[in-house]
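Researcher: Structure for this, please.
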Amino acid sequence: MTLHVLTAEPTHSVWDRALEPRLRVESSDQVHFECVDASGGQVNPAMTAEEFQRVDRTRIHALTGPVWVEGAEPGDVLQIDVLATQHRGWGWSSVIEGLGFLKDRFRTPTLFHWQLDGDETRSLWPAVVPIRPFLGVMGVARAEDGSFRTRPPGSFGGNLDVRELCAGARLYLPVYNLGALFSCGDGHAAQGDGEVCINGIECPLDVTLRFHLHKQQMLTGPIVESTEAVAPDTRSDSWVVVESAEDPATAARNTTNRMIDLLISRWGFSDVHAYILCSVALRLRLSQVVNEPMYTISGAISKSILPERELFPIA
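Model: Predicted structure, C-alpha cell format:
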C-alpha cells in the first residue's frame, strides 16, 4: 500500500475519458485529494451576493483527477473507501434565481457564509448544525466519447450528493474504461436530503480515499456501504412534517414548504435562512409507496439541531 498526494490544480469540470490521468495508482493504494470548493475556488469568505452572480458557471464542480487505477478495465468494480475528511474552516450556501426545489418561492439571489468550528457550525443561529463532511462528486469516466458537464449523475457515479458518503463509508462503481479514470470534488460540510436550495454547505475539502479493484464483477450503478455511525445526526428524535399526494414531487415540495413555515413560526428564522437550513439538515424521505395512488413524503430535522420547543404548550 502506498499513500499518494494529489493537489487540486489543475481541476476539470467535465467527464471526458480522453483526459490525461494526473496520477497512477495500484489497487489498495491510498490517495490524499486536495479539493477546492464547488465554485472552483471562485467563492471566498468575504464575497458578496452581487459578486457571486458573476462567477464563471463553467467552472462549477471543479474536480481533482483523473486517477488511473492500474489493471482496471471495463466490467470491473472499483471500491472507494472514504478514510478521512478535513474541511478548512469555512463554507457557503446560495440561492440562485431559477434554480432549487422551491424556485417559485425563493427568487432573490442570496449568498450565505458559514464558519465551521470543528464538528459543528453555529453560523445560522439558533440552529447548531453538525458537520459531516463528504464529497458530492465521486465518479469514473463515462463509457461514451466526448465531454459531459458534471451536474447529472449516472451509473458511473458523479454528482451523487449522497450525504452518507462521509468518513467510514464505502462506494462501489462500475468501471467503463481502462484505468477507471476516477475524479472527485464538490466538498460539502453538511447536506440535507434533497439539497433543496441547490447547495449543501459548499466547502474546500481534503479527503483520503483508498481504492480496491474487483475484477469482472457485475454492477450496473453505484452502491454505497454505510453504517449508522457515519451519520449520527439521523437519530429518531426529530421534528417530522408529513405530506401525501399522487405526485411524489408535489408531496416533497409541500413537505419542504411546511417545514420552512414551521421554522419561521416556531424558531424565528427568516424565510431564506429556513430554506438554507432545510438544504443542509432536512431528511426528506419517501415514507410509503403502497397506498396508491397516494405517495407519502416525510421531512425530518433532528431535535439536536434546534433549541427545545413545545409546539402547542399546555396552559
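Researcher: Any notable elements?
Model: The mean pLDDT is 93. The CA atoms of residues 174 and 233 lie 30 Å apart.
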